[in-house]
Amino acid sequence: MANIIGLTGGIASGKSTVSSMLKSKGFTIIDADIAARKVVEKGEQAYTKIIEAFGRTILHENGSIDRKKLGEIVFNDEKKRQLLNGIIHPEIRACMLREKEDAVKKGKQTVILDIPLLFENKLEWMVDRTILVYVDDHIQLERLMLRNHFSEQEAKSRIQAQMPLIKKRALADKVINNNGSMTNTLKQLEQIIHEWNLKP
Ligand SMILES: CC(C)(COP(=O)(O)OP(=O)(O)OC[C@H]1O[C@@H](n2cnc3c(N)ncnc32)[C@H](O)[C@@H]1O)[C@@H](O)C(=O)NCCC(=O)NCCS
Ligand SMILES: Nc1ncnc2c1ncn2[C@@H]1O[C@H](COP(=O)(O)OP(=O)(O)OP(=O)(O)O)[C@@H](O)[C@H]1O
């Protein structure tokens, strides 16, 4: 039986950083943000539904979805965000479950599902155990502004679209505190791998 681990956190809390560490140890990662990009490629079902719902003004000239434009709309309007979520989330889940099954069939002993909205969307059923990558609010805000070149307002509207990390802490099986150095984060991750006896 493979171990299915849910890796979650908040925007810019450090999930990709932790998932890179896991990848370099040979673990298989299935990333919801990557699935979200695949399922909206030109010609996919969700692509057509998004145009029907949001109009052609959210497209680049080449017909692909302008993520910056769509992001500005949905992170400033909860109803529109829910409209997008309703279109895209079922497709993301189906895509991730297919990839997970493929990995299990290939004999992987552990499969990591990196899902930012795992707790918001009550997706605990998809995984056996959960790891939360946590940071304090002010560090999350700083790192998000720095990484995405967002204004404070832009960063806050994205953070506020998610369940506060402090609430997620209470729901996770393990918490990695990513306030400190990457080395410190790696140490905490290695402790969990050891404790849960995870093998790629
Ligand atoms: C709105 C979109 C086009 C913005 O694209 P952009 O390239 O700027 O951001 P990206 O997709 O890399 O997401 C970055 C982070 O934003 C957060 N986020 C994205 N979508 C949402 C959402 N609907 N609600 C809350 N947080 C979200 C996540 O923490 C994610 O890791 C895109 O995020 C999207 O299609 N979102 C809907 C799908 C979704 O919920 N994805 C999250 C993973 S399930
Ligand atoms: N321990 C750390 N010390 C300093 N900077 C860090 C640390 N961990 C992550 N970062 C930086 O913070 C930013 C956010 O980290 P990362 O991209 O891993 O978060 P994420 O949770 O995957 O974000 P998102 O879900 O929004 O893509 C990145 O620029 C990353 O390099």
UniProtKB/TrEMBL annotation:
<keyword id="KW-0547">Nucleotide-binding</keyword>
<dbReference type="InterPro" id="IPR001977">
    <property type="entry name" value="Depp_CoAkinase"/>
</dbReference>
<keyword id="KW-0067">ATP-binding</keyword>
<keyword id="KW-0418">Kinase</keyword>
<keyword id="KW-0808">Transferase</keyword>
<comment type="pathway">
    <text>Cofactor biosynthesis; coenzyme A biosynthesis; CoA from (R)-pantothenate: step 5/5.</text>
</comment>
<keyword id="KW-0173">Coenzyme A biosynthesis</keyword>
<feature type="binding site">
    <location>
        <begin position="12"/>
        <end position="17"/>
    </location>
    <ligand>
        <name>ATP</name>
    </ligand>
</feature>
<dbReference type="Pfam" id="PF01121">
    <property type="entry name" value="CoaE"/>
</dbReference>
<dbReference type="GO" id="GO:0005524">
    <property type="term" value="F:ATP binding"/>
</dbReference>
<dbReference type="GO" id="GO:0004140">
    <property type="term" value="F:dephospho-CoA kinase activity"/>
</dbReference>
<protein>
    <recommendedName>
        <fullName>Dephospho-CoA kinase</fullName>
        <ecNumber>2.7.1.24</ecNumber>
    </recommendedName>
</protein>
<keyword id="KW-0963">Cytoplasm</keyword>
<dbReference type="InterPro" id="IPR027417">
    <property type="entry name" value="P-loop_NTPase"/>
</dbReference>
<comment type="similarity">
    <text>Belongs to the CoaE family.</text>
</comment>
<dbReference type="GO" id="GO:0015937">
    <property type="term" value="P:coenzyme A biosynthetic process"/>
</dbReference>
<comment type="function">
    <text>Catalyzes the phosphorylation of the 3'-hydroxyl group of dephosphocoenzyme A to form coenzyme A.</text>
</comment>
<dbReference type="GO" id="GO:0005737">
    <property type="term" value="C:cytoplasm"/>
</dbReference>
